[in-house]
Each structure stands twice: as C-alpha cells, then as structure tokens.
Amino acid sequence: GAGVSQSPSNKVTEKGKDVELRCDPISGHTALYWYRQSLGQGLEFLIYFQGNSAPDKSGLPSDRFSAERTGGSVSTLTIQRTQQEDSAVYLCASSLVGPNNSPLHFGNGTRLTVT
Amino acid sequence: AQTVTQSQPEMSVQEAETVTLSCTYDTSESNYYLFWYKQPPSRQMILVIRQEAYKQQNATENRFSVNFQKAAKSFSLKISDSQLGDTAMYFCAFPLSGGYNKLIFGAGTRLAVHP
Fold this sequence. Notes:
The complex is a heterodimer. By secondary structure, chain A is mainly beta.
C-alpha cells in the first residue's frame, strides 16, 4: 500500500478483555515499530522488529503486552487483560534500514479506550 | 540516561510570522541524529526535519530550519512564514541506543497559527 495502515482506528473495550491491534507496513520496509502515546504525552517506544532478527521488546511495559510480525510484514500488538491505564493511541511505523536509513513512516494509529 | 525536554507546552503565532520551538536533550552518544516530527489532528506523525550530529551546518527544509548547538545539547526548530497548516503538535526526538529509529520523544509543543 501507499502508507502504513492500522486497524481498527478506534477500539473501546472493557477492563479485563484482550485486544489485538493490527499494523500493515509499507511494502519493502524491513523495520517495524510500535509506539504508545498517552493523552497529552510524547510517544513511548514499545517494540521493534527488524527482518528475521529477534524483536527488541525493551519498551513493553508489562508481560500483558506482546507483539508478533508474521512473514516479515503485518504485525499484531496484543494487550491481555486490559487495564484503564492502557488507554492511549497506539502508533505503528515502518522504515528501511541500511546505509541510508530512512525516517519513520507512521500510520494514523489506533485509539484504545478501556472502560 | 537519555532524555528529551521540550519546555514550551503551547505556543501561538500569527500567520506569516516566525516562531521558534525549543528542545534540549541529554545523551552520551557522540554520533546521532535528531528529529522534529509534526502531528496534526489526523494523528499521523510526519517528519519535518532531521539533523546529523556530526554535521555543523544546520539543516533546512523550505520554511523549516534548526539551530543545533551540540555542546549545549540544544536543537530548536524555527518555522518561518508560518501558515495555518502548520498548526499541530511538534515533537523533538532522537534515537535510544540500539536503533536509528528507536526514538525517545519529548512531551511536545502545541503550536497554534492564527490568521
């Protein structure tokens, strides 16, 4: 596709339920990132996938958060047993990696509201 | 620890005038990139400008330019001839160790351009 696509754009869930957020990166981009943006805050790094390497999970806030990237393309961020503090906008981005590192191309994000 | 500080939560400017957004950071890295991203109400983060720390010349992209003071760890963004479409949140960012696009962001500055 022309850009990074995220779905759903908005998600409302009850506390304790699991949610899955999807990201479809730009074709050919080997690097994929998930960031979280809480209300009125900057972005917080969550996880980074690069090719077939093991993902950098150093930003995941708890073991309720996990992500996978299938076939080097689409990624899913899963939040189990959601809590109210998980309410935020979850942004996905992709980029090329190499001698000419490209900047991040972001999707429009998924706004998650936990009630 | 790596940190990014944007000390101006909100700024406003009249159309066609110039505004400067400030950013300071702290890192022990010697070679790195610095970025300014823009986030309009659509939520999509858009790269405005980037600066390579080893380059002394300040980066310029059309109406956007930076004042990079490496010794002072300061990286301000100047917007000349402000336009209504510049109204957005602006975030300063630079890479955490371990990845070009694994970024740490400031809390942002909300810029309003008035007619």
